[in-house]
Specification:
Aminopeptidase, single chain, alpha+beta, 177 residues, 37% helix, seven-stranded mixed beta sheet
């Protein structure tokens, strides 16, 4: 298995991987938030245009895992982390996350669905901690561009650097932005 940056020729493989893996959400996230396909061509293209830098795992020429990183100035967001159903729980997600965390010494945040406890557990296993509901809402509204319904049904976790950062302190003191 090879981990590498996304290339334009990976577009279909990335989209297929995301839509395969996202089937796990069916019945776990609100029905009004789950649709097929989970991610469209145009949405993936807009995420790339918005600065999400994807990394891929490749096995025998096939994309098997995808994880994005988005630079938000004072911190990074982990975006769109998906592993093909056929290889889930094989360590691919852990290797991808480790690679992205090596990208910077800045804080990292991850947002995921409240209805996906397996995702929350994955990030907690890697040292991320859940922020409070109030902090979550401020962070989602500041660093992500999400519909209100997704803000309501999301969960945000920060890495150890974020938890010790002045960003979190500003939020806690309600002096953020």
């Amino acid at each position: 298995m090879k981990i590498r940056r996304y290339r334009e020729t990976d577009f279909k493989g990335v989209l297929d991987t995301i839509n395969d893996a996202a089937r796990a959400y069916e019945g776990h996230i609100p029905a009004d938030c789950y649709h097929t396909p989970y991610m469209t061509d145009s949405y993936l293209a807009s995420e790339i245009d918005d600065g999400v830098e994807f990394w891929c795992t490749e096995n025998e020429g096939r994309i098997t895992g995808v994880m994005g990183i988005q630079d938000r100035g004072e911190l990074f967001l982990i975006r769109h982390a998906y592993i093909r159903t056929s290889i889930r729980r094989s360590g691919v997600g852990s290797r991808l996350l480790k690679k992205l965390l090596e990208h910077s010494t800045l804080p990292f945040l991850i947002g995921t669905w409240k209805g996906a406890p397996w995702a929350v557990d994955f990030y907690q296993k890697h040292g991320f901690e859940t922020v409070t509901e109030e902090e979550k809402e401020l962070l989602l509204r500041t660093y992500w561009d999400l519909p209100e319904r997704q803000v309501e049904t999301s969960h945000v976790l920060g890495d150890a650097v974020f938890l010790d950062s002045p960003i979190l302190e500003k939020i806690r003191n309600k002096s953020f932005r």
